[in-house]
Design goal:
Its cofactor is Zn(2+). GO terms for molecular function: 3'-tRNA processing endoribonuclease activity; zinc ion binding. This is Ribonuclease Z. The chain is an alpha/beta fold. The chain has two domains: 256 residues, Metallo-beta-lactamase, Chain A; 42 residues, no CATH class. Helices cover 24% and strands 27% of the residues. It contains nine helices and 18 strands. The chain has a seven-stranded mixed β-sheet with strand order 6-5-4-3-2-1-18. Helix 6 packs across helix 8 and helix 8 packs parallel to helix 9. It is globular, with a radius of gyration of 21 Å. The relative contact order is 0.14. The model has no long low-confidence stretch (mean pLDDT 96).
């Protein structure tokens, strides 16, 4: 399963309709929780997710709407007895804030949280044997902030008819995948290219508080799913630029230039009431003709089906 559970969509201040930030990207048994704001523990429960679903905790920066849910999430991991490692990525420059959040109250602690502080302009995180890579890039915000990009390696899709035509079956198929060629029962050498086609790896990007910068475009490039802040409408561009944020139109232009397949707009300023939602989509659509989702709390957004070569 590959999908996004939207746990909250507000910016600095939660509203009656929008919780603080929180985004759970579920990817083949892994759960990457991005920017848990205040109330995330409850939102996980309402969305039908559990602490056991979490394998990553990724913080873009230490403004409260992106991290005040960390204490509850960590304590829930401990309380529920999660035994697998949970990697924690966060800006190294905010380590003191991480420590305060990580140990904000008295509880029976857990040793499964594995810290991976992020520094520099670009950093590739240690994902072990996970079926993806995870890269952080420095964004443009008044405090140090990072966006994250998940990438599945390219692979190949086996073609059953081509395998059968060449007499390759059973254990030979696995050997062909591992070695790139096998000797078929008739003595013929069969190559992987003859019996498969390229399978492009899928990509997802998560971009929160930032002004436009090169890192935004690099993170979004070719993403199947782009989750990106659109804090303001275009008429409030000056306010967005002054505070290191994006507008809906800017998010749409980023998605169009990057060839994104599904665009998820989120992190909405409390100055707009729910009736303004269509305007975010309209302004993004002025530049981007793909699928646009205006995020709502507790919504589920599937990762688009795999691209065909």
């Amino acid at each position: 399963m590959r999908d996004l559970l939207v746990l909250g969509t507000a910016s600095a201040v939660p509203t009656r309709h929008r919780n603080h930030n929180g985004y759970l990207l579920r990817w083949d048994g892994h759960g990457l929780l991005f920017d848990p704001g205040d109330g995330t523990q409850r939102q996980l429960t309402l969305a039908g997710a559990a602490a056991h679903d979490l394998t990553w905790l990724c913080i873009t920066h230490f403004h409260g709407d992106h991290c005040l849910g960390v204490p509850g999430v960590v304590q829930r991991i401990a309380r529920d007895g999660v035994r697998h490692p949970v990697q924690a990525a966060f800006p190294a420059s905010g380590a003191r804030y991480w420590e305060r959040l990580r140990h904000a109250a008295v509880f029976h602690d857990t040793d499964v949280i594995r810290e991976q502080p992020v520094s520099g302009e670009t950093m590739r995180l240690d994902t072990g044997d996970a079926p993806f890579t995870l890269t952080a890039r420095r964004l443009n915000h008044p405090v140090q902030a990072y966006g994250y990009r998940l990438e599945e390696p390219d692979g190949r899709t086996m073609l059953p008819d081509e395998l059968a035509a060449r007499g390759v079956h059973g254990p030979l198929v696995g050997e062909l995948q591992r070695r790139g060629q096998v000797t078929a029962p008739g003595g013929r050498t069969v190559t992987l290219e003859e019996c498969s086609r390229p399978r492009p790896g899928q990509k997802a990007a998560f971009i929160m508080d930032t002004g436009l910068c090169d890192a935004v475009h690099a993170l979004a490039d070719g993403a199947d799913l782009l989750i990106i802040e659109s804090t303001f409408l275009d008429e409030d561009l000056a306010h967005a630029e002054a505070n290191g944020h994006l507008t809906a139109g800017q998010a749409g232009r980023v998605a169009a230039a990057a060839g994104v397949r599904r665009l998820v707009l989120t992190h909405f300023s409390g100055r707009y009431d729910p009736g303004a939602e269509p305007r975010f989509a309209e302004q993004a659509a002025a530049a981007y003709s793909g699928d646009i989702v205006v995020a709502r709390d507790l919504a589920r957004v599937p990762v688009p089906p795999r691209r065909t070569p």
